[in-house]
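Researcher: Please translate sequence to structure tokens.
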Amino acid sequence: MPFIDRADAGRRLAALLDHLRGSDVVVVGLPRGGVPVAFEVARALGAPLDVIAVRKVGVPFQPELAMGAIGEAGARVVDERVVAAAGISSEEFAAVEARERVELERRVRRFRGERPPVSLVGRTVVVVDDGIATGSTARAACQVARARGAARVVLAIPVAPPESVATLSRDADEVVCVETPVRFFAIGEFYEDFTQTSDAEVIALLERAVPLAAVTAHPTAIGGRGPSATPDPPLRDEDVEVRAGTLRLSGHLTVPEGVTGIVVFAHGSGSSRHSPRNRFVASVLNRDGLGTLLFDLLTPEEEVDRANVFDISLLGHRLVEVTRWLRADPTAATLRVGYFGASTGAAAALWAAGAPDAEIAAVVSRGGRPDLAADRLAFVAAPTLLIVGGHDDVVLDLNRRAAAQLRCEHRLEVVPGATHLFEEPGTLETAAALASGWFVGHMATSRT
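Model: Translation complete:
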């Protein structure tokens, strides 16, 4: 049965989500068409409403055909079947992605204005769109929600083909759909009124939703500082040009009010400062009073050679130089510095922490390869926490061997049910909480 319009679709969808009423829920709509639907869902559940921005990445010669999607927090989905069928090179995909990311950021600024995003940490997040065809943008939206700390993701849509619902069940903890017609050609055929939603309508609906003051009074779910109706803005939250010797690298520095130390992130296996997992961990550290510096360990030219990703000496030297740059910054001059490393970045972090006069307060490795730091492990003086997924058997064994070589204070924490990338519900949140606790416990004093 067709929907009258998006508001009607939202009310009918809300009826299937009544089991979420009274729980800690946030409703997020995909701009633009998903927001009128999400508004009705949020109103029915008495939940706050926000947007979750994603953009389709279309085939260059057929833009309406999605070959992937991108989202906030660096989320990126590639439809390998479409890419292969259309003969799209990695350079062509990157060019379209770059254009779409500019538009994505414009939309975020347009829709949110000066309002901060609603906190998703530890909450059930209902991702709403007005319908799904291929599912690329919905997958990206689910990734964004998880990267921003959602404890559970529910994907809710009025209409989608059965095969898309089945596929998306791997990206969301629950998929709720009103209609799943076998004969599916386009979303609009299931609406009597499918008039395009304007930016102004989206902004108006967000302003009519639950007031932000009530939204932000939310107790954190993973340790932290508890509820805060008006959280203090950070002292600094900005893109920076990081110096490493003669090189200039792109980075992002966040320094919260009352900062007790700064954690430098060493990404692994070719990841960058846009890594959604590391950005989520950084947000948890920021909430708990720690500053963070995320930066690109390699230049774009260096990334072309995949051997550089495993050159631990190169990465370790780079991290030492960046730490020297950071300590010359007036904001960080008196603060202790810690390292957070993932995958090969963990080896670089331990290599750098084992350098003479490193003065690193603490190191945390998530799903890391500390074994690649080799002989440097014996020289690490910083208290070190190794976090490994319980189902990441090979890496777990490598971490146990590496731990046996550490002479400093150290601990190995195994997260049950987690695989290498900590993609399972709740596992990344657990890893972030462990990391935050370790850093807070070891970085509460100033440098002398």
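Researcher: Any highlights?
Model: The radius of gyration is 23 Å.
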